[in-house]
DNA sequence: AAAGTGACGGCCG
DNA sequence: CCGGCCGCCACTT
């Protein structure tokens, strides 16, 4: 209900900084917030994503490169299509972080 | 105010 | 190589 916290907008802002054809892990975002342990919280924030159509939350994957976004039912397939559309090769819902993980300022 | 939850990460077996 | 357990934070009820 309340989203007046400072962390949430920070996460969204970082999503907008993700270059085309790249993905980010929760870990990277957490570190961007200031602490790796915030990774869990980052997931909650993306789940609270008020504008999933605008924020590239589908570009966010876990440390294993596996898509973890639960876009309703089967929305995961759509996310995969989106990533492939950006030139990202997704196999078995897994992306090659070695090639697509955007480390940002980290 | 306290306890529980979660779109996770890392380590151990 | 793969599976399972614990730990961390902020948010919710």
Describe this structure in words.
The chain has 106 residues and is mainly alpha-helical. The chain is 40% helix and 8% strand. It contains five helices and four strands, in the order αβααβαββα. It has helices at residues 7-16, 26-33, 39-47, 75-85, 97-100; strands spanning 24-25, 60-61, 90-91, 94-95. The strands form two sheets. A two-stranded parallel sheet has the order 1-2. A hairpin with a 2-residue loop joins strand 3 and strand 4 (94-95). Helix 1 packs across helix 2 (26-33) and helix 2 (26-33) crosses helix 3. The protein is globular and about 35 Å long. The N and C termini lie far apart (31 Å). The relative contact order is 0.20. It binds a DNA duplex (13 and 13 nucleotides) through residues 1-3, 5, 7, 25-27, 30, 33, 35-49, 57, 60-64, 67-71.
């Amino acid at each position: 209900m309340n989203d007046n916290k400072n962390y949430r907008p920070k996460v969204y802002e970082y999503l907008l900084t993700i270059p085309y054809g790249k993905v980010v892990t929760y870990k990277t975002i957490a570190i961007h917030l200031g602490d790796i342990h915030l990774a869990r919280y980052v997931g909650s924030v993306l789940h609270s994503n008020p504008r999933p159509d605008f924020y590239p939350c589908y570009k966010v994957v876990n440390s294993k490169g596996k898509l973890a976004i639960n876009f309703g039912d089967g929305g995961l397939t759509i996310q995969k299509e989106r990533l492939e559309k950006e030139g990202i090769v997704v196999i078995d819902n897994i992306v090659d972080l070695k090639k697509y993980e955007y480390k940002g300022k980290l």
